[in-house]
Amino acid sequence: MDDFKEDLKNIDKKRLYQSLFVLFLLITIPVGVRLAGQVQVFTPKAQTSDNIQALTNQLLEAKKDYTEVDILERIGIGADTKANLTKMTGAAAARKAALLKEAETDPKSFLDHATLADQRSDFPAPVQPLLEEKRQTLGELTVLHADDFEKKVSKFFYKLKEGENLYNVSFTGEAPEVLSGSIVEVTGISLDKEIVAGGGEPQPIPTPPPFRVHFPIQPIVEGTTGIQKTVVLLVNFDNDRSEPVSAEEIRQIMFGQTGNSAFTYYKENSFSKTYFQGDVFGWFTIPGTADCRYWDWTTQAEKAASDSGINISSYPRRVYVFPTTNCPYGGMGTIGGNPSMSWIYLPEREGVYLHELGHNLGVHHANNLFCNPQCYESEYGDPYEVMGYNIYGGNFYHFNAPHKEALHWLPPHKIQIASGSATYRIFNEEEVLTGPQALKIFKPDTLEFYFVSFRKATGFDKTLPQEVTNGAAIHLWNENPFRQTVLIDAA
Ligand SMILES: [Zn+2]
Fold first, then answer.
1. Disulfide: which of 89, 96, 358, 485 matches 477 by Cβ 3.0-4.6 Å?
2. Region 45-62: what's the mean pLDDT?
3. What mean pLDDT is predicted for residues 452-465?
4. C-alpha distances in angstroms, 264 versus 211, 276, 336, 384, 411?
5. pLDDT score for 76
């Protein structure tokens, strides 16, 4: 094995170019540091912090006045507690509004300033609903992923359904890597419909964890093959009734049996294992809002569809098309989920549909390793994959080998695992062929795998540049669908 590793280090990568169709295991270990794919950077907001602190101080002052006056009143000296209660309620309401804003934009700051949970019961009853509280709750988590393709940034949102209650959940550290629909237990600080989980990382019991996942830690993607029964709802607003694409055009984008469509794309990518089929309804018109209230819109759209006799619950995959610029994203999609949900804000862009459906099936992005001279991981950086930046042009290239493994399109017998220094033969990854279509090499220091694959200019890959089809592509991935694949060498 040591010899094998030594071989990997020493062999000249250029020899990979020797064959178009037969690849030899001659791989150099790339030099570079894999950095976290998505780093949430919060700019300091001293003003907001000061403001919330000042509001907390005002509230505590008002409480002190109230308590003192209340004592006087109780011993019969006579004083007006009502005025002080009004003052306290006003201070608590202003503080609550500021904290709720913080929960959305900067959860860590929310936790830093939500300091009154332990004192909640000391406040008079009318004030208590305006204050944060500790909450441990068990519910179904919806994992939403939002894509800003222009800025090349993406963001996760979480919603937790506990009975009839729906909470927005934020995590200050690492969020649970679970598919949409998983049951999780979240311990955090709540205010109204917001819950912020402190710490953010799973901690060993008996320390109360910020979340406990009742689900395998590494999710297994399921339901990715067979007919994917999908409903598409076209929705506009009473203050903007534009219909930039017709229902017929969207029917072609989603279900067209020829040309570029989600049907043809996923059929070819999956080696005829996965078919998107379904119906397109709309346009439905719902009340317009000034901001991106996609969740409310979804509820209203489904109601409008149900009212017109459509049985939404019979569709395990749902796509909502909103031609709006009120959302700062091109699209959003749940990671997995039954039903899975996609929100399309750029209705004319076929690639956005393909990308969000990829999230719905259960995978994250295709990144690349960018070195100049220091290496970092670039979100969406793989230009040869629709889960990367290959969505705006007319070319929608194939899923990469790791993603095809994740979605069960390349089953174990189609993936060769390198067991030592040897010559391995793999075939291109686009067509139904006999023999292995990817090679996996374990990387023990990071518990990841190098995936070696070969791309051929055929089908949806027919316009791949020659520098890609001339040799092997190498991706790095740890087999967790919540982790991006990283292209480290395209040829
Ligand atoms: Zn995405």
1. 485
2. 83
3. 95
4. 40, 9, 21, 18, 21
5. 59
What does the pLDDT average to over 144-157? 90
Highest mean pLDDT among 33-42, 192-201, 382-391: 382-391
Give me the mean pLDDT over the 237-251 stretch.
95
Mean pLDDT of 135-151: 90
- CA dist., res. 34 & res. 201, Å (int): 20
Give me ligand 1 centre to Cα 145, in Å.
6
- Residue 21's pLDDT is what? 25
Average pLDDT of the chain is 84
Q: What's the CA gap between 258 and 120, in Å, rounded?
A: 62
Both tokens of 88, joined, read 């306290």
CB atoms within 10 A of CB 300: 18
Residue 72 confidence (pLDDT): 62
C-alpha span between 403 and 355 (Å, rounded): 12
- 179-225: pLDDT as tens digits: 898 888 888 899 999 999 864 554 443 445 566 655 545 677 889 99
From ligand 1's centre to the CA of 72, what distance in Å?
61
**What pLDDT does 213 receive?**
58
- What does the alpha-carbon distance between residue 424 and residue 451 come to, in Å, rounded to a whole number? 13
Ion ligand 1 neighbours, Cβ < 5 Å: 147
CA 469–ligand 1 middle distance (angstroms): 25
pLDDT at residue 79, rounded to an integer: 58
Q: Is the pLDDT of residue 19 over 60?
A: no
CA distance readout (Å), 336 to 32, 142, 181, 221, 320: 31, 9, 8, 7, 16
Helix axes 46-74, 81-105, angle to 10 degrees: 160
CA distance 133 to 117: 4
Pairing type for strands 182-191 and 211-213 reads antiparallel
Supply φ then ψ for residue 149, to 5 degrees.
-65, -30
For 453, what's the count of Cα atoms within 13 Å in the CB-facing half-sphere?
Answer: 28
pLDDT at residue 457 in the model: 96
Cα-to-centroid distance, 385 and ligand 1 (Å): 12
